[in-house]
Write a structure and sequence with these properties.
Layout lengths: L12 E5 L2 H4 L11 H6 L21 H11 L3 E5 L2 H4 L9 H16 L3 E7 L5 H5 L8 H16 L5 E5 L2 H9 L11 H24 L6 E11 L4 H24 L4 H7 L11 H4 L5 E14 L7 E4 L14 H16 L4 E5 L13 H19 L4 E7 L18 E3 L6 E3 L1 H10 L2
Parallel strand pairs: 1-2, 1-9, 2-3, 3-4, 5-6, 6-8, 8-9
Antiparallel strand pairs: 6-7, 10-11
The structure holds beta-D-fucopyranose (FCB).
Amino acid sequence: MQFTRSDFPEGFVFGTATSAYQIEGHGFGGAGATHWDSFAATPGNVARGENGALACDHYHRLEEDLDLLAGLGADAYRFSTSWARVLPEGRGQVNEAGLDFYDRLVDGLLTRGIKPAVTLYHWELPSPLADLGGWRNRDIAGWFADFAEVLMRRIGDRVWSVAPINEPWCVGWLSHFDGYHAPGLRDIRATARAMHHVLLAHGRAIQVMRGLGMSNLGAVCNFEWSTPANGGEAATRAATTYDAIYNRFFLGGLFKRAYPTEVLVGLGAHLPDGWQEDFETIAAPLDWLGLNYYTRKVIDHAPGPWPNYQEVEGPLEKTQMGWEVYPDGLRDFLIRTATEYTGDLPLYVTENGMANADTHNTPDTARITYLEQHLGAVQEAIAAGVPLHGYFTWSLMDNYEWALGYEKRFGLVHVDFETLERTPKASYQALAKWWRA
Ligand code: FCB
């Protein structure tokens, strides 16, 4: 890669990201059942019916994986904690082995000089809470705040940063409107409630952690650039609606105490009573915002009920996910977010990377190129004045890519899912070369 550390601002943080259910092996260590287990056990939801019971067996290979991170020269590691590993029923009885695991993880990072960047929730909702309506039930904000307190009383004194929830759009829209992720609903009322409650839960968790005296608390949202399929009025309106739902709804709640009108047209009637009063909690000040970015979508008008958009195939080069490679979107989101929402607040790219059909002995040059292009976009944003403080690649290692199972490989490290052997890829070596310097 063409970069050195001196090409980025002083103190710029480089790291990688993973999540609990995707790597740990949820069948181990007394973790409770989650809605991802039952979603995956239902035919048709997940490729080959794969689940996270074993995943990368990170639970038992923690030290080896932390050594891989250290070998990469990562400054920080963004990982998530499983609610059901800590509280198998979602509430009540604590699984001490779960707390011990995250304790060892945090200490293992600190021993290696790596900053622990925690995400409290990356999608594996404890099943007993899903039975009570999960994100549709307003009480989830309190359940989640209690989980945050239990966990942070144990590790909160040593973590570098915390974000309560990974990608509210996926928790709300993808899982309750599109039905692609657990709990696999396709219901507009459920969607409206989940999208609002996920922000309320975020706000309650922030309150709890502030109460514990913690700092460097943020939020992590995902973004997809929305390009109209043509110059017509209908496609332009459809692309604007897509942008509002995906990219502006959660930023609106967090930073403007308002939801975009284009979203309220469809969801307004389905939001819970008194939702406006929750902005006091939702929009409490943060210390940073993280942006996850992978691709853009080309959007056209669709007939039928709101939201009247459909994705159409775009002309650009695609990754193993079928996602177009569009680095300009990363630059433009960073600039737009700072200009319209966050001002001087520190921003981080908290996920960026590509899936590629890697084998353990072919160099992943496509990933090196993808990372170079996106790091170039990051530099353009910095040059334009965006207060960007760090960049995390997704992911440290190949893992469970949700509804697409183990086939889609996002890792800097190859994982053989038969033997669980780890092999650093060419992209790992390329990053290590300048991250370690
Ligand atoms: C993000 C998720 C992460 C992974 C990548 C590819 O939306 O946060 O878990 O699935 O996409």
